Amino acid sequence: xxxxxxxxxxxxxxxxxxxxxxxxxxxxxxxxxxxxxxxxxxxxxxxxxxxxxxxxxxxxxxxxxxxxxxxxxxxxxxxxxxxxxxxxxxxxxxxxxxxxxxxxxxxxxxxxxxxxxxxxxxxxxxxxxxxxxxxxxxxxxxxxxxxxxxxxxxxxxxxxxxxxxxxxxxxxxxxxxxxxxxxxxxxxxxxxxxxxxxxxxxxxxxxxxxxxxxxxxxxxxxxxxxxxxxxxxxxxxxxxxxxxxxxxxxxxxxxxxxxxxxxxxxxxxxxxxxxxxxxxxxxxxxxxxxxxxxxxxxxxxxxxxxxxxxxxxxxxxxxxxxxxxxxxxxxxxxxxxxxxxxxxxxxxxxxxxxxxxxxxxxxxxxxxxxxxxxxxxxxxxxxxxxxxxxxxxxxxxxxxxxxxxxxxxxxxxxxxxxxxxxxxxxxxxxxxxxxxxxxxxxxxxxxxxxxxxxxxxxxxxxxxxxxxxxxxxxxxxxxxxxxxxxxxxxxxxxxxxxxxxxxxxxxxxxxxxxxxxxxxxxxxxx
Length: 526
Fold this sequence. Notes:
The chain is α+β, with helices and mostly antiparallel strands.
């Protein structure tokens, strides 16, 4: 028994040694295999970067950022390893190919060079260093197009003077070293409206793929449809509203019932109309705008969103005016606390797209008449009527003309100042009837507010010196008085013809200054 026990012990020891030996051999073999495929180490220094842009000059605007990126990575490659392009690089290319979802075209200047890197590796004739540099430039191209949009020079040429977002490439390029996706899953890189419009774009492209909606035909003498009317056209209206989601079920009835009227009102409220209980010619004309045109409008407004710094909407208090919507909003801590209809400038005297800091409210204001109005209206009026100034409650003041305070003053009973070179401000008006119209572009450029008293009360609610009673007294005193705000309030005057509201409804507004077409043209040329 002792002998067998000893033999067993020897066998166990031998087996253990044998196993260890095999294990060591396997480990050695794995090391040998690793040596057979050495780690890829490329040097991409400043000289190679200069040579790259000499060969590919259309990407030269990225040169400084690319140089800084490689310097940060100690002149090593970013996108390649010994197996080829790393997963992060392939993810970048897939996002680039899907730029249509962002309302953009995948038009990298050297598509013939970048596509073979991913689509057909065998056809890639670029060196490894050039391949890495080409992918890096694709990264900056994607980031610029999606996150920044057209440069500031272009947006200014389109008369957009709101503060531009500064694209922080440092933050974006950190994702390269983390090997994480360039996409913004948290939806924090952009102005929040961008993501809402992107969802709307996806929805409307889905509608387009299904054939869109048919044109609704009406008789030449058509004026309106009302509750109880019956015609095939009403069935077409019902179908159109069903496609766009304004009515939940399509009964296919040709009778104008309360469900259809409710759906039409819903459509009107999201297309710049005051909801009515009748279906008018202009409502049908709006329904007949093709889905393809709606898609272009969404894309144009997504581009405008790229220009806006998302930090702006995080302010504790600010006023925003959307010119095509003819609306003013006061936002506090992310919530809309006040809304008013507004009148904006005519096509010949457009309200400027810009921002300022409101610092003063003026009660019973004088109106200092602009020189252009003096030359175009007042002087011709004086030439025809010697009493023109007195009848208009005007007076000469140090070589200029001003209108005296009072209920007939062109600025009404109160104005809100945010100093700017455009001489634009918010103010009251004696012409109250204009606020009842759907289209309200009638001013000389300033923004007339339908509820100025309420706006003043809201802005001064935390100032004990200015109670509603004191505000009323100052507005009707006939004597100009100034109130300085304790804290300046940012005012943003923007231009959006497509906008998703806080309830998730997509709204379209008339392009009152015809600004969409030139922007869409630039985007489609890209």
